[in-house]
Design brief:
This protein has helices at 5-11, 58-65, 83-91, 93-97, 104-108, 124-140, 145-160, 165-183, 187-200, 202-210, 217-232. The protein is mostly helical and 237 residues long.
Length: 237
């Protein structure tokens, strides 16, 4: 999976087809080679058994004879939002006045953000909804435009040039040193709060991991700072 496909997959985990994986939520296709069931002979008298279902309309009968005509469930257009996140958003009065869909976050995550995604199962409506949800997620994290743009830049860079194991190990050490320099004896607490923030919305963790950024010093520090800020606001315990 290339480009922004990996990020979109974390918002629509069942819609973006993976190699060798089934798409459970996608409408099922019918086998063109399958033969439809034959209708009963007109010479057969209708059953008078009370256990039998009542006569069907022509449309109902056709759907039973040709399963492919039956209505299939529509794929979800809007990404699923964790209940805890939904409750936080509804309780945030400031957010209701200043929507993430306008202003700085809308500039950092433009309307065509997922335009290059190549998966045909993702409709234009889904791309629009995913873009809007990504802005909401950024607002959940308390991120500003510059922080969002920095993350997207790192994300794309790491997808194009994945870090080696040695680089990841180096980042891990640098992250711990950075937290110690920033929080001193409270570094371990800051790291624990960062983990809690990612647990609050697992999609954020999935996006970070998809971008090979789980140990990147800038990302680790940014998440820790966001977690402490959320805790001070009473939104993370």
């Amino acid at each position: 999976m290339e480009g922004m496909d990996a990020m979109l997959a974390k918002l629509y985990p069942t819609m973006v087809a993976q190699e060798g994986a089934s798409c459970a939520a996608c409408p099922k296709t019918t086998d063109a080679s399958a033969k439809p069931a034959q209708p009963p002979s007109s010479s057969q008298a209708p059953s008078t058994d009370p256990a039998q279902p009542p006569p069907q309309t022509e449309a109902e009968a056709a759907k039973r004879l040709f399963p492919g005509m039956q209505e299939q469930p529509e794929p979800a257009i809007k990404p699923s939002v964790p209940e805890a996140i939904r409750e936080l958003r509804e309780a945030d009065k400031e957010r209701q006045m200043y929507s993430p869909q306008k202003g700085p976050l809308a500039s950092a995550i433009p309307d065509d953000f997922f335009a290059a995604v190549s998966d045909d199962s993702i409709t234009p409506e889904m791309r629009t909804a995913a873009t809007a949800e990504l802005r909401e997620i950024a607002a959940d994290m308390g991120a500003n435009r510059q922080e969002v743009e920095n993350f997207i830049g790192l994300y794309k860079q790491n997808l194009a040039n994945p870090p080696t194991d040695e680089q990841t190990a180096k980042w891990h050490k640098e992250s711990l040193d950075l937290l110690k320099g920033r929080y001193g004896d409270g570094a371990e607490h800051a790291l624990d709060m960062a983990k809690k923030l990612l647990q609050r919305d697992p999609r954020v963790k999935s996006i970070i991991v998809a971008g090979n950024l789980g140990n990147h010093p800038k990302v680790v520090l940014a998440v820790a700072e966001a977690a402490i800020s959320e805790a001070q606001r009473g939104r993370l315990k």
